[in-house]
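Structure ticket #2291
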Amino acid sequence: MAELFDDIFKESKIFLKREVLSPHYIPHNLLFRDKQMQEIAKYMTPSLKGERGHNLFVYGKAGTGKTSCIKSVIDKIKSLPISKAKISYINCRVYNSRYRILHKIVSDYLPLYAKRGYGIVDIYERVISWIEEDGKILVVVLDEIDAVKDLDDLVYTLTRANSDIKAGGIAIVGISNKVSFKEVLDPRSLSTLDENELAFSPYNSNELSQIIKERVAEGFRKEVVDPAAINLAAALAAKDSGDARLALKIITKAGELSDERGLTAVTVNEVTEAAKFAEEEIAYEVINTLPEHQRLIVYAIALLSVQGSRYKRLSESGEMYLFSGDIYEKYVSVSNSLQKEAKSSRWYRKFISDLDMQGIIISYESGKGIRGHTKLIKLAYPPEKIRESIEKTLAKEATA
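Resolution: structure written out below.
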C-alpha cells in the first residue's frame, strides 16, 4: 500500500515552491501598483495619527490586486513603532452580516468578551467603549463588502457610531468588484459615508507577463518554463479580463500538466491546454461568490438551459439563447422555492448587465419580430457544471 503515496512524495521536476503561485500569496513587491499603494497609505494616514479621516472605497475587477495592496499596506502599518489605529480585516464572504462583522471586530481585540454570546446592541456599545478608552481609530477593512446581506444597516451603524464616540472614531475601507454596490444603500447611509474612491484597472499583457515571470522565478525550477509559454499565458489572461489570478492559474495548471506527464519543461502546448481548465475554474469560483440574487439568476439560466424553456432561439451561429423574460420568471420561481424575496424586474435588468460585463453570460438585443425587442441570453460556460456547482454551494449555505 505504501507505493500508493510514492508519487506524492516524489520530488517535482517542474515546481520548486508551489505556494508562491497561489493567488493568496502576497509578494514583497507588488508590481505596477505603486501609485495605488501610495494612495491607500495617504488615505489611511489620518487614522494612524488618531484623526478621523475619510472612508475609502476601492474598486476593480477580480484579480487586479485590490486585496493584495490593502493587505500589504496593513502589514506595513503593523510594523510601525507608533500608531493610534487598530485594523480589523474582514472577509465579507465569511462574515456576511452586521452582527457577524461586529462580532469579528470584538473577537479580534476583545476575545474573552466575544465568547459570552452578547447581542448586537451590547457588542456595539462594547466596541464604542473600547475605542474611547484611549481615543483610538478603528479601521474596519471590508473585503467584498457587496456580499454583506444587510449592508445598509452595517454602513449606517459604522458611520453613525462616530456621533456616539467621544474620543477616537471608526473608518471604513471597503473593497468591491462593483462600482454600483452603493446603489442598495439608503440615502441616510449615503449621506454619512464621506468617502474617497480608488479604482484599479485590469493588467495589460505586458504587465501580466512581468508578474508571471516574477512568480515563475520563485515557484518553478530554473529554466523549465519557456518564455513563450509565459507570454502566451499573459496574453490569454489579458484578452479575457486582465486578471492576474487567471494568469497564475494558467501557468500553474500548465506546470501540473507537465509534471503529470513526466516532462521537464512547460511549453506553449501545456499553456494552451491549461487555459481551458483555468478559465472554467475561475468562472465557477466567481459564480459561487456572486451576490445572492445574481447567483440565483445564473442558477435560473442554468436550469432553463438544462431542463429546457418554453421559448428558445437559435442564433445565426446555431447557439441556443434564452429569452430574458423567461429567465426572470424562472428566477422568481427559484427565489420563492428557497423562501427568498425576488428582486424587481428593474434590479433584474441591472444584474443581467453586471453578469454580462463579468463575462458570465453572453447577451444581445433581438431584432424586430421576436416578441418585440427583447434580450437574448446564454451562459458563457457549460450549464450543467454551473448548475451542479451552485447547488453544492446552496446546500452548504443551508446547513451553515
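Closing remark: The beta strands are 55-60, 85-91, 137-143, 169-176, 195-200, 312-314, 320-323, 361-365, 375-379.
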